[in-house]
């Protein structure tokens, strides 16, 4: 253990050296404390985020009736309390009537089966006959699962006795030659597998309960052949999408079973869609065994339009070849929403308020022509975007390096040019949600 020096025995020079050493140690310890606090804040945010993803709801909407953390005016709180008290004073009967869900009418195109219910005897004991004066009608929804039908194709043979010529109608084209499934059954198998995520072994069991012994190996062959036959449609969709100047792109991980290993491998499905403002609505999906950027480049090839996407590095090679990057405001917003949801960050809420103003302007111009949409964006959205940019720069100088709020700010500031390009083109959307919705549907 080192003993403390006797200050009375030290010379002035030694005191200055000792003071400098102590100041250096204090400075070092201060920096260490700041680093530790940043790490603790980061890990606390990550733990809270993981808990929210596992246990909380996924919606990123902010409740418009939620009191702002930045607004602590007493009048606002009193008004909220009075509104709650007024709501509690509503009559119980009116409340129950309001909360009771309304039953929607069953679709008119559904086939109807009429079932009549009449009394067994329409004569009274007095001898009088009852007269029908009206009726009550109610509808019930029924479902019959696994209804299969069989198409029996009969091709007549016609012969000429004089020239001995045999004539017969040609076999209608089928997706699978000499196979038993019709296009309707193949469509059902494909939709069940890829849209409803129903594996083939479960479809095999469902068919078995209906009395059809179709093994999954046969179902797998049907899926493979159908995929090959659908390739011209995929190629046509790809041409339609790449024929547009603005494209949405997004990638989603899927688990692929590796043959012979009984293990799954992380693969990806990429979606490419036309813009929500385009007159042409099309989306095409491209499977790849990895998330490497070369897969996006192989799909886009020499296309050099405007690509709406997130900050995934796989698109960077395309940007270097002439593709214009359009940033996704929803991804930038999500960084701040996560902070607001996990630790009620006032800085994150202020950013959300700014971004909310931008989305309110987008709702206003959603159905307008591109030129008018651009003009209103320039008049209303550009000033909001400039204030948001100035606010972000000012806050970035104040927050510690490596903190969660600094990473959220850096995400937007580093991509500010890409996030702002939608303001200069009325045909460009503010975010990439159009493609993400199509990925969820798929």
Automatic annotation (TrEMBL):
Ranges for the Transposase IS66 central domain? Answer: 178-436
Where the record annotates domain Transposase IS66 zinc-finger binding, the positions are 126-164
Superkingdom per UniProt: Bacteria
Cite the Pfam families for this sequence.
DDE_Tnp_IS66 (PF03050), LZ_Tnp_IS66 (PF13007), zf-IS66 (PF13005)
| InterPro entries attached to this UniProt entry | Transposase-related (IPR052344), Transposase_IS66_central (IPR004291), Transposase_TnpC_homeodom (IPR024463), Znf_dom_IS66 (IPR024474)
Q: Locate the Transposase TnpC homeodomain domain: which residues?
A: 44-113
- This chain belongs to the protein called Transposase IS66 family protein
- Please tell me the species this chain comes from: Pseudomonas fluorescens
Organism placement in taxonomy: Bacteria, Pseudomonadati, Pseudomonadota, Gammaproteobacteria, Pseudomonadales
